[in-house]
Write a structure and sequence with these properties.
Layout: E1 8-9, E2 12-21, E3 24-31, E4 36-42, H1 45-48, H2 51-65, E5 75-81, E6 84-89, E7 94-96, H3 97-101, H4 109-128, E8 131-132, E9 141-144, E10 149-151, E11 158-159, H5 192-195, H6 202-218, H7 228-237, H8 243-246, H9 252-261, H10 273-286, E12 309-310, E13 338-341, E14 347-354, E15 360-367, E16 372-378, E17 381-386, E18 393-397, E19 402-411, E20 417-425, E21 432-443, E22 450-454, E23 460-463, E24 469-473, E25 476-482, E26 488-494, E27 502-508, E28 513-520, E29 522-528, E30 534-540, E31 547-552, E32 557-562, E33 566-572, E34 578-592, E35 598-600, E36 607-612, E37 619-623, H11 625-628, E38 633-637, E39 645-649, E40 651-655, E41 661-665, E42 674-678, E43 685-686, E44 693-701, E45 707-713, E46 720-725, E47 732-733, E48 740-744, E49 750-754, E50 760-764, E51 771-772, E52 780-785, E53 791-796, E54 803-810, E55 816-823, E56 830-838, E57 845-860
Parallel strand pairs: 12-32
Antiparallel strand pairs: 1-2, 2-3, 3-4, 4-6, 5-6, 7-9, 8-11, 9-10, 13-57, 14-15, 15-16, 16-17, 18-19, 19-20, 20-21, 21-22, 22-23, 23-24, 25-26, 26-27, 27-28, 29-30, 30-31, 31-32, 33-34, 34-35, 34-57, 36-37, 37-38, 38-39, 40-41, 41-42, 42-43, 44-45, 45-46, 46-47, 48-49, 49-50, 50-51, 52-53, ...
């Protein structure tokens, strides 16, 4: 059907046509709710009765909406109006790649590689989620005015099992497969297996991308005959004219990548699209400035700007990791780093530091469920010695052999913690208490003063020397390290309380702060290079798979090492040896039903923050980690273990009483805003913008569903609890600064909150004096009220515990009784169990656990 300007399709006002194709017509439209322009794709009514075309059209929306990546078009809604099916999606102002290559001239190197890198990264995200595009072509790649690439039209996408990026694992179809012999896609851009009607996987998209790269580099299609049938035959049997002949100035790495993608045998292509994206990114990042000013030219031999090293392989020269065994550019050889494993037991390392000699290592670990203990080992001799020292994290070791240990730590939310700082000699024995409310510490180079991160009342501040406050934040601070010259402290600055996203910062003795590297999704681990010219740190831009980076005081950053799994930098010795923790992490959820049976309710790799509906029939949770994407994702599923449904980006905070909305925060924005995500049909609703930084951990709905209570802070002010009317208006505070909590009483008159003394109290919603609650512990996690408002259910959280104990506390008397004990079925590698959500009758529980397995490595030769 053709829509006229000014007509309406569902809630959207049609503004003008954009284009049309085999899968429908596209219009520019206006979303009246959010006041933004969008694109609306309409399936013609004549095709609506075709079950196959309708299924493919709806599949496009489901496939694309399941992804969260800047290079994949965002789907807002799929609906039907008067028999017309349509998709509301992101409007991209720009040109298709077809328009950019229409002249037949090769694209400039910089533009070609920018498009190639972004396209491969978007495909990598889809492939990791088990989605194969199957109809990639220049018409389906939109390049915005500011250079961003968006992959369009997942109408032919085929769902497959999510797979690890591993050559030995191939996807298994879970959707109804295409019948053998059925050809789907666009002639000229199909893979050989697709053209012959054979089953396809993610490597088919790699072939297609190779065809597109070929066309961008030469101005000619890789496969083009007089008829479609002849073109398909050429794809199956013939090789394209060598790219080197048509584009002789193309850099050799580009030719090799295209050749590998265009291999007839899928086994000869990339084992993962993530590897393809990395190789394209390496070419782009290492071409000289002269080579990107015009058409494709070979890069002149040059000394590499940076050297990248991974656990699996070493990288030498200006381009790394492209094709094993092939010479890329002739550069000065780089010696391969050596990795020496220091730990061999089952469990995880918590912290580690080199002794002054650089050969002895002192570390804290939890082996075989025995609890946190302090060990020592030497690089030359495998095996560890258990030391008679207090349990806790090894924070620093001075040149004189004095150790700092952070003990008795307890957590507020996420990673935010504090404890008692103690000192002891390396030989073991008694320890002396130094300071309370400490979150991290380091010695000065001369061992005479301390740099401290302290958090009294959970207000984080950095002191150097102890007592002199250099920096305060409403977020939190970690990993302070004093420079070798003693003139500054490098640290990780986390703006969102409890979340490990953050930046690498430097502050001098006068309090002048400099941001060295920003925008990391996860940042943990930091140390100075021996020269003091660089700060090394472990971080990742998305997910949780941290790599090792270095940044100069001037802010020049480089990649040092990368590996599958999670890297955490523990220390660097004076002779340049690095101490690295290599781990595999997982956060999971376990459901306990009325039948006393447990069910694994985890979904991806970092399932956490469970929320249960009143009747226990709906579970909402957040996916962080690799699967959740850079902005996290909110999911909904039934506690019976049925598949989860992604609701949108953000971190889930609360479920509305009617079950129709999930309140979520967007932790990657500053200040972090709140949004409402529909659990069914509908559009997300953004709450009124203000200057409040909304914390992504605490919030509740009022019983009428019209108001919420949340925790946050205004710029320059402390954290507190607020009330917000969802229909608009300004949020108002209901607790003093420094008092946080959002557990609303059943009668809506009180919230349970804690002040700086950590003692819980009832704070009246409408104002008035607080009423203390006896019987609660600072480490208690508040779960819910009983329906009659007599009791509070709390879980006493202990780091590294294999159980979570749930208590019932009588509010009027403080009487406390053990009510339930939650235990994971398999304790291997469990570094903590935390009760998360329960129904009022106590028949349904969902609790979380963290499984953490790691080993410690000493690494020589990293540069």
């Amino acid at each position: 059907m053709s829509l006229t300007t000014g007509s309406r399709l569902g809630p959207y006002e049609i503004l003008s046509p954009i284009g049309a194709g085999g899968m429908g017509e596209v219009y520019r439209a206006k979303d009246p709710k959010l006041g933004r322009e969008i694109a609306v794709k309409v399936l013609p009514i004549a095709a609506s009765s075709d079950p196959d075309r309708r299924q493919r059209f709806e599949q496009e929306a489901r496939s694309a909406s399941a992804l969260n990546h800047p290079n994949i078009l965002t789907i807002h809604d799929i609906s039907e109006s008067d028999g017309t099916i349509y998709i509301a999606m992101e409007l991209v102002e720009g040109k298709t790649l077809r328009e950019l290559v229409a002249s037949g001239d090769p694209l400039p190197t910089k533009k070609l590689l920018d498009i190639a890198v972004q396209t491969s990264e978007g495909l990598s995200k889809a492939h990791a989620a088990g989605i194969v595009h199957r109809d990639l072509k220049p018409e389906n790649l939109m390049v915005s005015k500011d250079g961003y690439v968006k992959i369009l039209d997942f109408g032919l996408a085929k769902l497959t099992e999510p797979v690890a990026q591993d050559a030995s694992v191939l996807p298994t179809a879970i959707a109804a497969p295409t019948q053998p012999g059925t050809v789907m896609g666009t002639a000229g851009y199909m893979s050989p297996e697709q053209a012959s009607g054979q089953p396809v996987d993610f490597r088919s998209d790699q072939f297609t991308l190779g065809s597109i790269l070929y066309e961008m580099a030469t101005g000619r299609k890789a496969f083009q005959k007089k008829t479609g049938a002849e073109t398909l035959a050429a794809i199956i049997r013939e090789e394209p004219e060598p790219l080197g002949q048509l584009a002789p100035k193309a850099p050799a790495p580009v030719r090799w990548i295209v050749e590998r993608c265009l291999s007839k045998d899928p086994e000869e292509r990339y084992a993962s699209t993530k590897d393809l994206a990395r190789d394209l990114r390496s070419v782009r990042d290492h071409l000289t400035e002269s080579s990107v000013s015009g058409a494709l030219e070979a890069a002149a031999p040059a000394r590499a700007k940076r050297r990248v090293t991974a656990f699996a392989w070493a990288i030498a020269g200006a381009l790394a990791g492209l094709l094993a065994g092939r010479e890329i550019w002739k550069t000065r050889p780089v010696s391969e780093p050596s990795y020496r494993r220091l730990t061999y037991r089952r469990g995880f390392v918590r912290s580690g530091r080199f002794a002054p000699d650089g050969h002895a290592v002192f570390y804290t670990a939890n082996w075989d469920g025995a609890g946190t203990q302090v060990f020592s080992t030497r690089i030359e001799n495998p095996g560890s010695l258990l030391l008679d020292l207090p349990s806790g994290n090894v924070e620093a070791i001075s040149r004189s052999g004095e150790m700092l240990i952070l003990s008795d730590a307890f957590f507020s939310s996420g990673y935010a913690h504090r404890g008692v700082l103690r000192t002891a000699t390396l030989s073991g024995g008694g320890a002396r208490d130094l300071f309370e409310d400490v979150a991290a510490a380091d010695w000065s180079p001369d061992g005479k003063s301390l740099a401290l991160v302290r958090a009294p009342g959970w207000r984080y501040r950095l002191e150097y020397p102890a007592g002199k406050i250099l920096y305060e934040t409403a977020g939190w601070v970690s990993h302070p390290r004093v420079s070798p010259r003693g003139d500054a402290v490098a640290f990780l600055d986390h703006p969102q309380f409890g979340d490990d996203a953050g930046s690498v910062a430097l502050i001098d003795r006068n309090g002048k702060k400099t941001m060295l590297s920003e925008g990391w999704s996860s940042a943990q681990g930091l140390a100075w290079s021996p020269s003091g010219e660089e700060v090394w740190f472990s971080a990742t831009e998305a997910g949780s798979a941290r790599a090792l980076y270095a940044v100069t005081r001037a802010g020049r950053r480089r990649l040092v090492a990368k590996s599958p799994g999670v890297l955490t930098l523990e220390d660097i010795s004076e002779d340049g040896r690095a101490l690295l923790d290599h781990a595999n992490d997982r956060l999971g959820l376990i459901g306990l039903g009325a039948d006393s049976k447990t069910r694994n309710l985890s979904w991806l790799d970092w399932s956490r923050a469970p929320i249960l509906s009143q009747d226990g029939g709906t579970l909402v949770f957040t996916e962080e980690g690799e699967g959740g994407g850079p902005g996290y994702s909110v999911y909904l599923r039934k506690p019976d273990g049925s598949p989860a449904v992604r609701l949108g980006e953000g971190e889930g905070l609360a479920l509305s009483p009617d079950g129709k909305w999930v309140l979520a925060a967007l932790p990657r924005s500053a200040p972090a805003p709140l949004i409402l995500l529909p659990t069914g049909a509908g559009e997300p609703r953004a709450l009124p913008k203000d200057a409040i930084n909304h914390e992504s951990v605490l919030a509740s709905f009022f019983p009428d569903g019209r108001r919420i209570v949340f925790t946050g802070n205004e710029p320059g002010h402390g954290r507190r609890a607020w009330i917000q009317d969802l229909d608009g208006g300004k949020a108002r505070p209901i607790t003093p600064e420094g008092v946080v909590g959002t557990l609303l009483s059943p009668d809506s008159r009180f919230v349970v909150a804690r002040g700086q003394d950590q003692k819980p109290a009832l704070y009246p919603v409408e104002g008035g004096p607080a009423r203390p609650i006896e019987g609660l512990d600072p480490n208690d996690q508040l779960l819910r009220w009983s329906d009659d408002q007599r009791f509070l259910y709390v879980s006493h959280f202990r780091p590294l515990s294999l159980t979570a104990k749930v208590y019932r506390v009588e509010v009027s008397t403080g009487r406390r009784e053990l009510w339930k004990e939650l235990t994971v079925p398999d304790p291997t590698g469990i570094s903590g169990v935390r009760a998360g959500a329960m129904t009022s009758d106590g028949k349904t529980f969902v609790f979380g656990y963290r499984q953490h397995l790691s080993d410690l490595y000493a690494v020589d030769g990293l540069k």
